[in-house]
Design goal:
Helix content: 40-55%
Order of helices and strands: EHEHHEHEHH
Largest sheet: 4 strands, parallel
């Protein structure tokens, strides 16, 4: 059975798969994503903050060659978030929630909610924001490897 790992919008896809097939997975890892019942708030936030925040992050990632999403892709993501629904009440496998130490407060709040509502293990990756897998890959990979080996803190 698979271990599902999803980051950001991919975390929502992972949550959706886990909700649809809760008996067909070994574990679920959600990285800087949203809790299904709080997606309207995130959609509004993205609408208001996309231009300013995204511009700063995008420019940095583009300079470093790490990220290439354009404004239209961000607007598509915002639209997808607004309509996201998943019933995670039947997920009974180990869940890991990862967030970056310097992530936006609204995203930290989402991770707090995921941790609390799913009884998840929570790890905050130091020296990272929204993409800890890119910003601190050593710490991210060690965290994920430990979790997948069954070292569930």
């Amino acid at each position: 059975m698979p271990h599902i790992v999803g980051t950001s919008l991919g975390g929502m896809i992972a949550e959706s798969d886990a909700a649809k097939y809760p008996l067909h997975l070994n574990s679920l890892t959600i990285v800087n994503s949203v809790y299904p019942e709080r997606t309207r708030m995130m959609s509004i936030f993205l609408f208001l903050k996309t231009a300013r925040i995204y511009k700063e992050e995008r420019l940095r990632y583009l300079r470093e060659g790490k990220y290439s999403a354009d404004r239209n892709e961000m607007l598509k993501m915002r639209s997808a978030i607004g309509g996201f629904e998943a019933d995670l009440s039947n997920v009974s496998v180990p869940v890991l929630v990862i967030s970056g130490s310097n992530e936006l407060k609204i995203m930290q709040s989402q991770s707090d909610t995921l941790e609390r509502n799913l009884g998840a293990q929570r790890v905050i990756i130091p020296q990272s924001k929204h993409h800890p897998n890119l910003e601190n890959p050593e710490a991210f990979n060690k965290t994920l490897e430990d979790f997948l080996r069954g070292e569930h803190g």
